[in-house]
Amino acid sequence: MDSLIEFVLEIILEGTIAGAESKKVPLPIRILLFTFLIAIYGALVGIFVLLSVKTGSVWMWILTFLVFALILGVTVYRIRKYRRENKNKDKEKDAENK
C-alpha cells in the first residue's frame, strides 16, 4: 500500500513539475500547476513546523530549517535558470531579426 501511494504521489509531482516547466502548456495552467507545487511544498514545511512545535526538539527545528532552506534554494535556482534561458532566447531572437 505504501508503494502504491508513493508511486501515485511521484506521478502527480513529476507531472506537475513537467507541466509547470513546459512551454506547450498554456500559461494560466502553468500558473495553476506552479501554485499547486507551492502549496504542496508549503504543506511539507508546515508539517515539519508542526512536528517541531509538538516535540519541542532542537534537532527537529534544525531539520525544519534545513528542509525549508533546501526547498527555497531549489526554487530560487529553478527561477534563475528559467529567467536565464528566456533571456538567452530573447537575445537569439534579436540577433536573428537584425
Characteristic key phrases:
single chain, 98 residues, 3 helices, 91% helix, 0% strand
Order of helices and strands: HHH
**What distance separates the N and C termini?**
59 Å
Strand content: under 5%
Note the quaternary state here. Answer: single chain
Element layout with pairings:
Blueprint: H1 2-21, H2 27-55, H3 58-97
Helix pairs in contact: 1-2, 2-3
Describe the model.
It is built from three helices and no strands. It is mostly helical and 98 residues long. It has one domain.
Can you describe this structure in just a few lines?
By secondary structure, the protein is an all-alpha fold.
